[in-house]
Specification:
Elements: H1 4-38, E1 44-54, E2 59-71, E3 74-83, E4 89-93, H2 99-106, H3 109-140, H4 143-150, H5 152-156
Antiparallel strand pairs: 1-2, 2-3, 3-4
């Protein structure tokens, strides 16, 4: 039979759990801010797992990915769900995800950051290559045309 001591212990345990969840959420908000402050301008997703859900007719797969992306003009950390049967995706901000999903996502943060850094490096190289190609093109033009190309940065500014 349940007694007052058991209820008090359960209440203390729930209070501890609530405190830990608050710390988890605060940490995730801090990570989201830190990723935003890096100002890399790249989106990235890391697959966390697949759920197989049996439906009325067949098995439906849902793939979950930890994602950092721009949503409604704001960079956000969250979980993207891909529904295999329809190909549709749904993004959920990290604090709107289930407690279990938030806990699971923590172990993928390092992979997400590494992916973002790799993408930023690739984009930087592509831009540098494009600039070099433009410079080579400008040099190959007759001198009168090249002078016009050099004036473009002043026109844009």
């Amino acid at each position: 039979m349940i007694n007052a001591d058991m209820l008090n212990e359960a209440a203390k345990g729930l209070k501890n759990l609530e405190d830990f969840i608050t710390r988890l959420d605060t940490g995730l908000v801090g990570v989201e801010k830190a990723l935003t402050d890096l100002d890399l301008g790249v989106e990235s997703s890391i697959e966390m797992g697949v759920d197989m859900v049996e439906g009325s007719e067949d098995v439906v797969a849902k793939t979950y990915s930890l994602t950092f992306s721009k949503n409604n003009s704001k960079w956000q950390l969250g979980v993207t769900t891909l529904f295999a049967s329809s190909g549709n995706t749904r993004f959920s901000p990290i604090l709107k995800c289930s407690r279990d999903m938030r806990i699971q996502s923590v172990s993928y943060l390092d992979q997400l950051l590494a992916s973002m850094m790799d993408q930023a490096a690739s984009i930087t190289k592509a831009v540098e290559d494009a600039i070099n190609a433009l410079d080579a093109f400008a040099e190959a033009m007759p001198s009168s045309k090249a002078a016009e190309v050099e004036d473009i940065p002043e026109i844009i500014a």
